Amino acid sequence: MSVVRQAGPADAPAVRTVLARAYHDNPLMRWVLPDERTRDDACAAWLGPSVDRYVALGGVDVLVEDDEVVAAAAWREPGLDAQHPVLRTLPTGPGVLAALVGPERAADVLARLGAAAAWAPAVPAPYLNYLAVRPEQQGAGLGARLLEHRLRRYDAVGVPTWLGTTDPRNVPFYARLGFAVVGEVELTPSSGDRAVPGDRTAATVLRVLHRGPADPLA
Q1: Which pLDDT tens digit goes with each residue over 150-168?
Q2: Phi, then psi, of 70 in degrees rounded to 5
Q3: Which of 20, 138, 197, 213 could bond 158 through an S-S bridge, CB–CB 3.0 to 4.6 Å?
Q4: Which residues of 50-86 are buried (b: 16+ CB within 10 A; e: fewer)?
Q5: What is the mean pLDDT of residues 38-56?
Q6: What DSSP character marks residue 203?
Q7: In this structure, how many other beta carbons lie within 10 angstroms of the beta carbon of residue 91?
Q8: Which is it for the CA torsion 17, 81, 182, 32, positive or negative?
Q9: Beta partners for 211?
C-alpha cells in the first residue's frame, strides 16, 4: 500500500537519498558534479540543506510504500516566513556547493542557474525545485501521482506553477500534467570542461516550464 503525505523532519535523510540516486545521470548533475564515483554523495550533500529547509517550511511531499520513501517533490512557495529559524542554519546549499567544487565554480554554476529567473511567471508562483522517484520504480506513474496531489490544491485556489528541467526526457512527462516550455537557458560549461563552447549538443540546457491554474491533468 502506498500513500502521499507531507514530509516531516524524520523523512529528510530518505528524501535526499532518493534525490541523489534519481539524479545520478541528470544532465545538470553530470555537469556540476562530473566525478561519477562521488556524484551520489556529493549530490545528497549539495541538496541536503535545501531539503531540510523545504521540509521545515512544509514544501515537501513524499510517496511512501511499506514505510519507505520512494518518491519526493519539493516546492519553493512564495510568501513563506523569511524569519523562520531553519533559514539561519548551516550548512547552506551554496556553501556546500562551494566546498565541493570551489567558490569560483560554485558562483558560476549558481549564476547560470539564476538566469532562469528571467522566465519566471508574471506573478509570484510555487516553483517545483525537485521531483525524484527511486530509479528502480520510475515509469510506474509515481511521479505524476505525487505532483497531482499538490497541483490540485494549487488549482483550487487559482495558483500557477513553474519549474526548470535539464533533462529533455522530462518535458513530455510535464506536458501531460499541463506544463509548457516558455524559455531556455543554456548552462554553458565552464572553462576546462570537455564541451565545446557554442556546441548545443555538448551544452546543458535548462528548460523553463509554466502551468496555469486549472489546466487539465491528463
Answers
A1: 999 999 999 999 999 999 9
A2: -115, -10
A3: 213
A4: bbbbbbbbebbbbbbeeeebbbbbbbbbeeeeeeeee
A5: 98
A6: S
A7: 15
A8: negative
A9: 161
Cβ proximity of 92 and 181 under 8 Å: no
What confidence category does residue 216 fall into, taking pLDDT thresholds of 50, 70 and 90? low
126 vs 199, residue with greater confidence: 126
Bond prior to 91 in cis (omega within 30° of 0): yes
CA 217 to each of CA 10, 64, 77, 150, 168: distance values in angstroms, whole numbers, following the listed order: 31, 22, 21, 12, 20
Q: Residue 89 corresponds to which cell in the numbers above?
A: 542554519
Q: How does 99-127 read in b/e, with b if 16+ C-beta sit within 10 Å?
A: ebbeeebbebbeebbeebeebebeeebbb
**Run of H or E including 4:** strand 2-6
Q: Identify the helix (H) or strand (E) that includes residue 68.
A: strand 68-76
**Closest C-alpha among 132, 118, 107, 115 to residue 47:** 132
Contact residues for 218 (Cβ-Cβ < 8 A; gap 6+): 176, 177, 178
Amino acid letter, 204: T
The model's pLDDT over 52-100, given as tens digits with 9 standing for 90+, comes to: 999 999 999 999 999 999 999 999 999 877 789 999 999 999 999 999 9
Q: Which residues contact 71 (CB under 8 A, 6 or more apart)?
A: 18, 62, 63, 131, 132, 133, 134, 137, 142, 143, 146
Measure the CA–CA gap between 206 and 43, rounded to whole angstroms.
18
For cell 527511486, name the residue: 134
